[in-house]
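Researcher: I'd like a structural prediction for the single chain below. Treat it as a standalone chain; there are no partners to consider.
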Amino acid sequence: MNKPVKELEEQSITVEIPEIIPVLPLRDLVIFPYMISPVMVGRDLSINAVNYALNHHKLIFLAAQKNSGIDEPGPDELYREGTIAKIVQTMKLPNGLLKIVVDGLVMGRIKRFTGETEYFEAEIQLKEVQSVYDAELTALLRQAETAFKDYASLNKNINAETLVSFENITEPDRKLYFAAANVNQAIDSKLKILKKNKLKDQYYELIKLLRGEVEILKVEKEIDHKVQENIAKTQRKFIIQEQIKILQEELGEDDALSEEEKLLESIESAGMPEQVVDKAIEEYNKLAKIPPMSPEYTVIRNYLDWLIAVPWIKRTKDKLDINHVQKILDEDHFGLEKPKERIIEHIAVLNLVKNMRGQILCLVGPPGVGKTSLGRSIARALGRNFVRISLGGVRDEAEIRGHRKTYIGSMPGKILQAMKRAGTVNPVILLDEIDKLSSDFRGDPSSAMLEVLDPEQNFAFNDHYVEVDYDLSQVLFITTANVRYNIPLPLQDRMEIIELSSYLEVDKLEIAKRHIIPKQVKLHGLTKARIKFNDEAILELISNYTRESGVRNMEREITAILRKVAKDYVAKLQASAKDAKKQITVTPQLVEKYLGAPRYKKTYLRQNFSNWECNRARLDQRWW
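Model: Treating it as a single chain, here is the predicted structure.
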């Protein structure tokens, strides 16, 4: 089968190369002639090919894979160009792999595969490189030598021994393959050299390859130089800053850097009281003596940032027109006459006094009667900023007063955080769910709230983080609660309780017509021209589908109806139905269709009571 077709002279040794030899696929590796290289063999087809070569002529054809990720490549996944090599050494490793050392002999090309199944076997056509020694080849040789030296000087992976070996080679073809083997490039680029049949063309490809790599390495070196230069500048700047600080201390000067000057200007322009300014300046002087890399620097800087961020003098102008406030409250809420009257009285006194320290309003009522939204309406009517603080589940006193700034990650409490969000000294702060405060071993937050809500104390509220007195007397505090007896008695003593009773059916009807339905119709992309609720449908919702003190469940049921109406409208619109643009009137029958059977019936209790009376009468007759 193996017919001798050529004899190759290598170092005065005649090598007989058969026409058909086994093929060894290589991953991410190209072996050139005159190149001795180790190869790891682990696949069954590859091991069989090596064993066959060892048992016969020790010759094997080395072909690179097109895709190195394929574990079992087929003939179509191999490049046709490659190198015929001789196996000069083998070693079996403990992990089952086979390590062989191959010596590249001559270039070749796969003409066809024989179809052998145990290993790859192919008919190989030898490629004889045509070389004409003239001026052009001499010039190419010099260009290649220069390019390879430039590449070696920039590439850290090429040592001095490799460069000396390259300079000692005299044969042009051997010099070419040595340089190509040591260039870190993709397989496609290296195979371009093997595809050429003329030595000059191969040199052109090599020079192109080397110059491309040299340009890339120059850019990488330039980038690395810039990075190192920036690092050096940063270190130099830090050293100079430290030297300036030391010199300033020696000279007794307190001149600060530009960033610290801005910080000092912010402290001076924040409008802090005198004692707070003294505290801030004291901390600022500490900051100027601490290196920026120190953890203490960050702690002090955050503390000063909080002092600057909290409002000290900025305020909004109150809108104290009683008629305007009454109009806003009536627009946002139906009913609630007692809370509205109390708010109007408070604003009337503000017109006369301008700065009143009175009791805190506490809105007590069941869920859904509008306590939170009433607080938001008060802020809108007065033209003040509004901030809501949820107190549900607060059980740590530090959440109200803050942590000491010596702790890692410490922050001011909820009150000063709310003041920062408000940005003014006279906002409306709603303390929601004050009856849900709880206490444990970490402290009693309700005791901390005493200083916040007591008009005789809150002008000098002390947060543990800022450690200075803060004036809360201009803040309009409004608290809410569901149940009065859950509010701690000391807090009740400092608040004026305003009861918000449950809504009657008439009130719910008006609230639905004036507020809920218009708002939800707009939110669902509908208009009054497309949907209309009649009073009987709303009353059906109120009496037979919701039984609550407020209006939240009623709003949920209305949104459920609007979603179904929107679905029907879109379905008709997409089907090009003629009645798609007709107005839909929600009736009690349509309510039952959309929401199912009524959940409650007015006669339910009466019927059960009468049935119970009848059964009791029958039992009495049997007993007697």
